[in-house]
Amino acid sequence: MDDITLEALGYHEVLGELEGFAVSPPARGLVRGLRPGTDRSGIEEAFAELTEMGSVLKASGPLPFDGIRDIGPLLSAPAPEGAYFTPPELFDIKETIEAISRIKSLVDRSFSRAFPVTSSRIGTLSDHKALRGELSRVLDEKGHIRDEASAKLREIRGEVLSSRERGRAVLEKLTGSRELSGVFTDEISTIRDDRYVLLVKAGRHAELPGVVHGRSASGATYFVEPFQVVELNNRIAILKKEEKTEEVKILKAATARVIEERDIIMADLSATARLDLAQAKALFKEHIQAVVPLIKEGGEVKLTGARHPLLVFKELKRGAPVVPVDIRLRPGSSVLVISGANAGGKTVALKTLGLLSLMAQTGLAIPAEEGSELNLFNNVFSDIGDRQDIAEDLSTFSAHLKRLGEILEAVSPPTLVLVDEIGVGTDPAEGGVLALAMLETLSERGATTVVTTHLNILKARAQTDPAFENAAVEFDEETTRPRYKLGYGVPGPSLGLSVARNYGIPDGVIKRAREMLEGDEGEFIRSVRALEEEKGEVRALREG
User: Which residues pair with 63 in a beta bridge?
Assistant: First the structure.
């Protein structure tokens, strides 16, 4: 599926909404990388995972993916000689393998019987018991290296602590001295460059024998290290270097243990990401009240009560209710011509078919009713929207021609082609015959094509050619409002004059335009209305 089609149909917006239901960073990465597939067995497998995960959610709630961190890049990056993981990196690894262990612990005999697909994937996970124990011994709950990480580290830190206590005692004695009364600022002591110093008022620093380590920004305070704590500070500095050396030794040992299990951890990350993705799909399905469609290789396309996902997202954010539409592509018909009033829902129907096809081939449930069926397409192409390209000096018509040329070149069965307002931007007569020739060519090359149009030549062909079929967006001319539904078997009049009144065009202008509407075009519109009335009468008899 090319990027132009994915962008035009709003595929990435759907993935963006789906991503919000993924918990772990690896799963969110999987969502962003999703693309429609063409392997039916792979799609059905994804649907099976999604469906079973929905049952898991109902039975036991969401799986605990929240502890999984984004450690894939960390583990997969090449490590230079002597490199080691930092405490925060090791902490992320520790949190991740603990989360993996919690997920693995969910599976017991009853869970396995009830949810075999999910259990099988969870069953591939490793417990990492020894590594978890090692990292818990090295790191505390905040990710800092524990004193108990080694006997030598505990000894060094103990000596640093006792040295600092002796240093504080010396400073307290100095600051309590009567001889130095009034020398110090309100804040008496601090640590500067890892050395104990006293804060002395400017102009009185000479009264305290020691090493001056600088002044404050205002110049009102001197930082003085009394000679009495120099030796203690030197000892602390040496101990801190020894502490750093021992910490590096501990981190290198812990890193080596992680590297031993790196491939297993990476495999676990992949498995949990796929589980998280299946859960995200299941949550997304419930969020938009979607169903899993039947995917077939050929036959009728039948979408019942289909709703455009982007409109569903808006509705869920307290927008206007989405009016569902039934979309059908009958076997033997390779071109569906959708016509009817402006703002009647033609483009929405076109995009709904395209986007729901892409979603289904991505293994996503679709917002439609149970029993909906879709065909498996090896490609979906669209030409939708204003394709004017100023950079290439292309008019709207030229840009559409360029796009349609690309589609004609690439199309092969089974392909779905969606074209909005085919043949527009030029003389209607030339645009009509060119559009018809393109549709015939697409049909000959095995494509299934759906177009929206106001061109009567296409509507007329669909009335006589069994390879074509007409569908019309229904419009209430009395209220001048669209019904956002498709009626099959008859074309729809454009009703531009009826719609014009809704946008403030004066009645006098509309009346004059109606008087001008005569000849073949007017006769065609009258015949279309007669067909619609006849079909309405038949429908009323059936319902009665």
Answer: none
Query: What's the whole-number average pLDDT of the chain?
Result: 90
- Contacts of residue 184, Cβ cutoff 8 Å, sequence gap at least 6: 175, 198, 199, 200, 201
| Strand 373-375 versus strand 294-296 pairing type | parallel
pLDDT digits (tens, 9 = 90+) for 398-441: 888 899 999 999 999 999 999 999 988 888 889 899 999 999 99
- The fraction of the chain above a pLDDT of 70, given in percent, is 90
**Pairwise CA distance, residues 110 & 400, whole Å:** 58
Tell which residue, 474, 381, 384, has the closest CA to residue 422: 384
Structure token digits, residue 138: 């090295």
Tell me, what's the pLDDT at 360? 98
Q: Which distant-in-sequence residues (6+ apart) come within 8 Å of 319 by Cβ?
A: 311
Give yes or no for a contact between 338 and 472, defined as CB atoms under 8 angstroms apart.
Answer: yes
> Are the CB atoms for 413 and 446 separated by under 8 Å?
yes
3-state secondary structure of 202: coil
User: How far apart (Å, rounded) are the C-alpha atoms in residues 273 and 275?
Assistant: 5
In terms of pTM, does the model score above 0.90? Answer: no
Q: Specify the DSSP element, H or E, that contains 218.
A: none
Distance CA 17, CA 311 (A): 12
* Dihedral sign for Cα atoms in the order 221, 226, 232, 237: positive
- 190: tokens are 């601090």
